[in-house]
């Protein structure tokens, strides 16, 4: 009787371990990088006049900005400059991964103004796209990402300070804070997530 109980206990433990490792495998495989949302594809002009289609099977880090932003935007762009270098080193830049920066202020941010702004951060157009739509297009695209923004006084725009990391199927797989005076963007975590999405 004792032998039977021992065998039964061993069998139950074995089955439990199998179930545990199966669930662990499923969790790691499917949920390690959660799908937070799905973005409807859109087309928007870049500052070079090219029509950019979101549906291009690449991983994208999307940032909203405006050139007259006094702090958060330029600090974030400076960090994205470092991210661009890392992506280039790993031969992901432009081929598998793109940085998208969309202005929230198309009235003041002309293509020329944004071009000068992009040059200040050594943005390489091969994989770092600066985009500008009409006021209505900007509202529509911002709405797709649930990006809230509002002109509050003069040319100052209050806006959400997050970036969106999307996979090649336009699913949002990460939401990251933009930089501020106390903290840079989390380049390490962003790169780790990008590597997993491009493997």
Description:
With 199 residues, the chain is an alpha+beta fold. It has helices spanning 2-31, 72-89, 111-120, 135-144, 187-198, and strands at residues 37-38, 43-45, 51-53, 59-65, 97-103, 128-131, 149-153, 156-159, 162-166, 171-177. A 6-stranded mixed sheet has the order 1-10-9-4-5-6, covered by helices on one side. It is globular, with a radius of gyration of 22 Å.
Instruction: Give me the secondary-structure category.
Output: alpha+beta
Strand and helix order: HEEEEHEHEHEEEEH
| Number of H- or I-type helical stretches | 5
**CA distance, first residue to last residue:** 53 Å
Strand content: 15-25%
Q: Major sheet: size, sense and barrel closure? A: 6 strands, mixed
Average pLDDT reading: 88
How many strands? 10
Low-confidence segments: 5-11, 16-31
Q: Indicate the multimeric state.
A: single chain
Q: Based on CA inertia axes, which overall geometry fits?
A: globular
Q: Over all CA atoms, what is the radius of gyration?
A: 22 Å
**Helix fraction by DSSP (H/I, runs of at least 4):** 40-55%
Q: Going across the major beta sheet, what is the strand order?
A: 1-10-9-4-5-6
